# Entry
Amino acid sequence: MSKKTLLAILAIALVLGIGLTYRLMMMGSETQSSGAAAIGGPFELVNQNGDTVTQQDYAGKYMLIYFGYTFCPDVCPTELQVMGTALDMMPEDIAADVTPIFISIDPERDTIGALGAYVPHFHDRMVGLTGTVAQTSEAAKAYRIYYAKSIPDGEPEDTDSYLMDHSSFVYLMGRDGEFIRHFNYGTAPEDMAKGITEAVKSNG
Ligand code: NI
# Structure
Protein backbone atom coordinates (compact mmCIF):
# COMPACT_ATOMS: atom_id res chain seq x y z
CA MET A 1 0.00 0.00 0.00
CA SER A 2 1.44 3.38 -0.96
CA LYS A 3 1.66 6.25 1.48
CA LYS A 4 -0.89 8.13 -0.62
CA THR A 5 -3.47 5.33 -0.43
CA LEU A 6 -2.96 5.05 3.33
CA LEU A 7 -3.51 8.79 3.76
CA ALA A 8 -6.64 8.61 1.63
CA ILE A 9 -8.02 5.76 3.73
CA LEU A 10 -7.23 7.64 6.94
CA ALA A 11 -8.94 10.76 5.61
CA ILE A 12 -12.08 8.80 4.70
CA ALA A 13 -12.11 7.08 8.09
CA LEU A 14 -11.79 10.46 9.80
CA VAL A 15 -14.70 11.95 7.84
CA LEU A 16 -16.88 8.88 8.50
CA GLY A 17 -15.93 8.96 12.17
CA ILE A 18 -16.86 12.62 12.57
CA GLY A 19 -20.13 12.04 10.72
CA LEU A 20 -21.04 9.08 12.90
CA THR A 21 -20.15 10.91 16.11
CA TYR A 22 -22.25 13.87 15.01
CA ARG A 23 -25.23 11.65 14.20
CA LEU A 24 -24.98 9.87 17.54
CA MET A 25 -24.83 13.19 19.34
CA MET A 26 -27.91 14.40 17.47
CA MET A 27 -29.76 11.18 18.23
CA GLY A 28 -28.84 11.51 21.89
CA SER A 29 -30.09 15.06 22.15
CA GLU A 30 -33.30 14.27 20.26
CA THR A 31 -34.09 11.37 22.57
CA GLN A 32 -33.38 13.55 25.56
CA SER A 33 -35.48 16.51 24.49
CA SER A 34 -38.44 14.46 23.25
CA GLY A 35 -38.27 12.31 26.39
CA ALA A 36 -38.53 15.39 28.58
CA ALA A 37 -41.32 16.90 26.50
CA ALA A 38 -43.25 13.67 26.13
CA ILE A 39 -44.63 13.22 29.64
CA GLY A 40 -46.89 15.68 31.42
CA GLY A 41 -48.77 18.80 30.48
CA PRO A 42 -51.83 20.79 31.36
CA PHE A 43 -54.91 19.11 32.84
CA GLU A 44 -58.27 20.20 34.18
CA LEU A 45 -59.88 17.78 36.62
CA VAL A 46 -62.02 17.67 39.77
CA ASN A 47 -60.58 16.81 43.18
CA GLN A 48 -62.16 14.67 45.92
CA ASN A 49 -63.75 17.79 47.43
CA GLY A 50 -65.50 18.65 44.18
CA ASP A 51 -63.20 21.56 43.27
CA THR A 52 -62.06 22.02 39.68
CA VAL A 53 -58.26 22.06 39.60
CA THR A 54 -55.48 22.34 37.02
CA GLN A 55 -51.75 21.60 37.14
CA GLN A 56 -51.33 25.24 38.24
CA ASP A 57 -52.92 24.40 41.59
CA TYR A 58 -49.99 22.10 42.33
CA ALA A 59 -47.23 24.29 40.91
CA GLY A 60 -44.44 25.27 43.28
CA LYS A 61 -44.24 21.77 44.72
CA TYR A 62 -43.34 18.40 43.28
CA MET A 63 -46.15 16.12 42.11
CA LEU A 64 -45.97 12.37 42.60
CA ILE A 65 -48.60 11.13 40.16
CA TYR A 66 -50.20 7.75 39.63
CA PHE A 67 -53.03 6.90 37.21
CA GLY A 68 -55.45 4.11 38.11
CA TYR A 69 -58.97 3.34 39.32
CA THR A 70 -60.56 2.71 42.69
CA PHE A 71 -62.07 -0.65 41.68
CA CYS A 72 -58.60 -2.01 40.84
CA PRO A 73 -58.23 -5.25 42.80
CA ASP A 74 -54.45 -5.30 43.25
CA VAL A 75 -52.05 -3.17 41.22
CA CYS A 76 -53.39 0.29 42.10
CA PRO A 77 -53.77 -0.21 45.85
CA THR A 78 -50.31 -1.79 46.01
CA GLU A 79 -48.68 1.09 44.17
CA LEU A 80 -50.57 3.80 46.10
CA GLN A 81 -49.49 2.11 49.31
CA VAL A 82 -45.87 2.28 48.14
CA MET A 83 -46.27 6.01 47.41
CA GLY A 84 -47.75 6.70 50.85
CA THR A 85 -45.12 4.62 52.63
CA ALA A 86 -42.31 6.27 50.65
CA LEU A 87 -43.53 9.74 51.68
CA ASP A 88 -43.56 8.69 55.33
CA MET A 89 -39.99 7.36 55.03
CA MET A 90 -38.54 10.59 53.62
CA PRO A 91 -37.19 13.51 55.61
CA GLU A 92 -40.30 15.48 56.63
CA ASP A 93 -39.34 18.75 54.93
CA ILE A 94 -38.80 16.95 51.62
CA ALA A 95 -42.03 14.94 51.88
CA ALA A 96 -43.91 18.20 52.60
CA ASP A 97 -42.67 19.49 49.24
CA VAL A 98 -44.29 16.60 47.35
CA THR A 99 -48.03 16.31 46.57
CA PRO A 100 -49.14 12.71 46.02
CA ILE A 101 -51.83 12.60 43.33
CA PHE A 102 -54.04 9.75 42.14
CA ILE A 103 -55.74 10.39 38.77
CA SER A 104 -58.64 8.17 37.69
CA ILE A 105 -58.73 6.54 34.30
CA ASP A 106 -62.24 5.23 35.14
CA PRO A 107 -64.27 8.42 35.67
CA GLU A 108 -67.59 6.64 35.02
CA ARG A 109 -67.28 4.78 38.32
CA ASP A 110 -64.75 7.00 40.11
CA THR A 111 -67.07 9.72 41.34
CA ILE A 112 -65.91 12.51 43.62
CA GLY A 113 -67.36 10.57 46.56
CA ALA A 114 -65.62 7.33 45.56
CA LEU A 115 -62.26 9.12 45.43
CA GLY A 116 -62.92 10.87 48.73
CA ALA A 117 -63.45 7.50 50.40
CA TYR A 118 -60.44 5.94 48.69
CA VAL A 119 -57.36 8.19 48.71
CA PRO A 120 -57.07 8.79 52.49
CA HIS A 121 -56.33 5.06 52.91
CA PHE A 122 -52.93 5.62 51.31
CA HIS A 123 -51.79 9.00 52.62
CA ASP A 124 -53.51 11.81 54.50
CA ARG A 125 -52.34 14.34 51.91
CA MET A 126 -53.14 12.24 48.85
CA VAL A 127 -55.20 14.09 46.25
CA GLY A 128 -57.73 12.15 44.17
CA LEU A 129 -58.62 13.55 40.75
CA THR A 130 -61.41 12.57 38.37
CA GLY A 131 -63.50 14.43 35.81
CA THR A 132 -65.46 13.88 32.65
CA VAL A 133 -64.40 11.09 30.30
CA ALA A 134 -62.88 13.76 28.05
CA GLN A 135 -60.97 15.43 30.90
CA THR A 136 -59.44 12.24 32.29
CA SER A 137 -58.57 10.92 28.85
CA GLU A 138 -56.85 14.22 28.07
CA ALA A 139 -54.80 13.97 31.27
CA ALA A 140 -53.90 10.32 30.62
CA LYS A 141 -52.84 11.21 27.09
CA ALA A 142 -50.56 13.99 28.33
CA TYR A 143 -48.85 11.51 30.65
CA ARG A 144 -48.68 8.77 27.99
CA ILE A 145 -50.85 6.41 30.03
CA TYR A 146 -52.33 3.43 28.24
CA TYR A 147 -55.68 2.15 29.51
CA ALA A 148 -58.57 0.06 28.20
CA LYS A 149 -61.77 -1.42 29.57
CA SER A 150 -61.54 -5.18 30.06
CA ILE A 151 -64.80 -7.12 30.43
CA PRO A 152 -64.45 -10.43 32.31
CA ASP A 153 -65.58 -13.60 30.46
CA GLY A 154 -69.30 -14.17 30.76
CA GLU A 155 -70.12 -10.58 31.74
CA PRO A 156 -72.41 -8.53 29.49
CA GLU A 157 -70.92 -5.65 27.46
CA ASP A 158 -72.61 -3.05 29.68
CA THR A 159 -71.51 -4.61 32.98
CA ASP A 160 -70.48 -2.39 35.86
CA SER A 161 -67.95 -4.92 37.11
CA TYR A 162 -65.38 -4.46 34.38
CA LEU A 163 -61.65 -4.16 34.94
CA MET A 164 -59.29 -1.58 33.46
CA ASP A 165 -56.00 -2.57 31.89
CA HIS A 166 -53.62 0.29 32.46
CA SER A 167 -49.98 1.24 32.59
CA SER A 168 -48.57 1.50 36.07
CA PHE A 169 -45.89 4.16 36.50
CA VAL A 170 -45.33 6.63 39.28
CA TYR A 171 -44.25 9.98 37.85
CA LEU A 172 -42.24 12.57 39.72
CA MET A 173 -42.93 16.00 38.24
CA GLY A 174 -41.00 19.16 39.19
CA ARG A 175 -42.16 22.47 40.63
CA ASP A 176 -43.19 23.75 37.20
CA GLY A 177 -44.89 20.51 36.23
CA GLU A 178 -41.89 19.27 34.25
CA PHE A 179 -41.10 15.56 34.08
CA ILE A 180 -38.23 14.55 36.35
CA ARG A 181 -38.33 10.76 36.51
CA HIS A 182 -40.60 7.76 36.84
CA PHE A 183 -40.69 4.71 39.09
CA ASN A 184 -41.68 1.31 37.71
CA TYR A 185 -44.32 -0.87 39.28
CA GLY A 186 -42.72 -2.96 42.02
CA THR A 187 -40.27 -0.30 43.23
CA ALA A 188 -39.71 -0.76 46.96
CA PRO A 189 -40.91 2.14 49.17
CA GLU A 190 -37.37 2.77 50.47
CA ASP A 191 -36.03 3.02 46.91
CA MET A 192 -38.82 5.42 45.94
CA ALA A 193 -38.16 7.50 49.07
CA LYS A 194 -34.46 7.61 48.22
CA GLY A 195 -35.10 8.45 44.55
CA ILE A 196 -37.47 11.31 45.38
CA THR A 197 -35.19 12.68 48.11
CA GLU A 198 -32.22 12.71 45.73
CA ALA A 199 -34.25 14.34 42.97
CA VAL A 200 -35.59 17.07 45.27
CA LYS A 201 -32.09 17.75 46.64
CA SER A 202 -30.50 18.01 43.20
CA ASN A 203 -33.34 20.00 41.59
CA GLY A 204 -33.88 22.32 44.54
NI1 NI B 1 -54.94 -0.74 38.71
